[in-house]
Amino acid sequence: MKLKKSAEDKMIFLYRYVSLSLTSLVFLFETSRLMVWQKLLLIVFLFLSVTAFTWIYRKYRLHDMVLKCSIALETAGIILLLFPTGGINSPFKWYVITPMLVACAHLSMRYSWTLLLSYIGLVLTFCYIFFTPGQYFLWDLILQNINLFLVLIVTTMAMQVIRVMKDELKVAKDQANETMDHIKSIYHIMETTSHNEALNLGQVISDYTVKLTKQSRAFFWLDSQEEDAPASSQTGWTVEEEEQLFEELGNYREEFREEREPFFRHLPEWGDFLMITVPMTTRFVATIGLKLGPDQSLTGRRWLVQQLIFLAELSAVFLERYELERIENQLIVTNEQNRIANEMHDNVSQSLFGIVYATHSLRQTWCHQPKEQVEEQIDLIQQSANQAVRELKGAIHSLSSKKSGGSTWLGSVKSHLHTLSKLNHVQIDFDIHGDHYSLPYLYQKALFRIISEAAGNAIRHGLAKRIDVKLKLTPQVIRLSIHDDGVGFETARMVAGGEAVSAGGGLGMMNMEYLAQSMGGEFDISSRIGEGTQIRLSIPVNAYE
């Protein structure tokens, strides 16, 4: 696997060549027992060696054992280099900083300090034995090179501090990226969820609370007994424990209503919880709770508070939208009923009243009228009946997209897939069998979202070039199959622990599974690396009803 060079790696590798060039320049012009051609040959050998070690550091920087052995070997080479280049007075004694930088940047603190102390001890020992026998005491030799040792120690300490800060920043960045991925997925759910699917909100929020905070247990508790309210739900407890937990939470109902900030609460026999009341102006009062571990640090708790605040605000937006959509739907239904009633009263009912009145009048007088006059009145009644039929057909025609030729669900799906195909240069084949006009609206919306999500995952994560969508509609069951030729992924990784898989769009898969289950259907996914992904969905048509 080819690793991308970071700015830190580029800086260290550039410093290696610059420092070697300067050190070699000093060595070339200083007085030495070596001849010029010998120095040049040695410098060329050093540059080749540095190039080889640099390649090893770049290629195997994720393999600690290879990296440790390579750094130790280069450090040993620098110590041996002191023998032909002047011993303790050799300019190359400073070059040891370069492998030390690599060690501090990629390896543990213990290894870095062991390497540094070993280098100092070996240099002092060899120089004292081979280069200054009887001229200095060991302490004098240390004082003579104290500047070198201080520079090495300070450099190592500075690099260790930078390494710790870098690791902390990396962890924070990874958490931020992971949080943003979850936020995007939750936002997608909130934006596209219909009125009836809102009943799954509690399970969605509790599941994502666990994922965002990386804790094991969380709950979403809604203080409402109304049938059209989202259900309270939890993640991490059993079904029996869920009932007991929500019963315990009911004892603190009034206290939760008064809370406006995140708060800690100890529940007897349940442990310590971090909770937040969802701020909203609707008829609902909801609380999101997270069970804390015994070793939770203060910094960790602050991060958890931030996540809960975000989830609470997002939940509040969704619940208020849910209420507005509920009221809006009621108003739409009422207005439509009134419009149809007025239209029927003004047109069809008037025509029918005229027909009834004319028929009644004709029944009373037909025996006293000439045949020609009776036939004329019958023709008028027939014309009125035909007019009423035309008006009734017109009303039905305006309400039916199938009869009026307006936009249909199938047209919307085809248009969306065509746009995806053109924008991403992907071939998408859509094959449908059955009557889509009779498909209830809730099923239409769920199928559109699943098809859209699956096609988007195949393009974004699977890098697919061809997607086959097959939909079979029968009065009893809906069957959907979506197959792509993308890179695929290991489905076992997504099943084990519920981890999201970037290659397969694990969060998107969860969204589709939620939709299928909310409609009483079955969701199945199969995939292998290099062999694409196939999604199969089966929904009984009358299960939701």
TrEMBL record:
Transmembrane segments: 12-29, 35-57, 69-86, 116-136, 142-162
Function: Member of the two-component regulatory system NreB/NreC involved in the control of dissimilatory nitrate/nitrite reduction in response to oxygen. NreB functions as a direct oxygen sensor histidine kinase which is autophosphorylated, in the absence of oxygen, probably at the conserved histidine residue, and transfers its phosphate group probably to a conserved aspartate residue of NreC. NreB/NreC activates the expression of the nitrate (narGHJI) and nitrite (nir) reductase operons, as well as the putative nitrate transporter gene narT.
CDD domains, sorted: HATPase_UhpB-NarQ-NarX-like (cd16917)
Cofactor: [4Fe-4S] cluster
Source organism superkingdom: Bacteria
Compartments where found: Cytoplasm
Pfam families found in the cross-reference section: HATPase_c, HisKA_3
Gene Ontology molecular function: kinase activity
Domain Histidine kinase: 343-543
EC number: 2.7.13.3
Reaction equations catalysed: ATP + protein L-histidine = ADP + protein N-phospho-L-histidine
SUPFAM superfamilies: ATPase domain of HSP90 chaperone/DNA topoisomerase II/histidine kinase (SSF55874)
Protein name: Oxygen sensor histidine kinase NreB
UniProt entry keywords in alphabetical sequence: 4Fe-4S, ATP-binding, Cytoplasm, Iron, Iron-sulfur, Kinase, Membrane, Metal-binding, Nucleotide-binding, Transferase, Transmembrane, Transmembrane helix, Two-component regulatory system
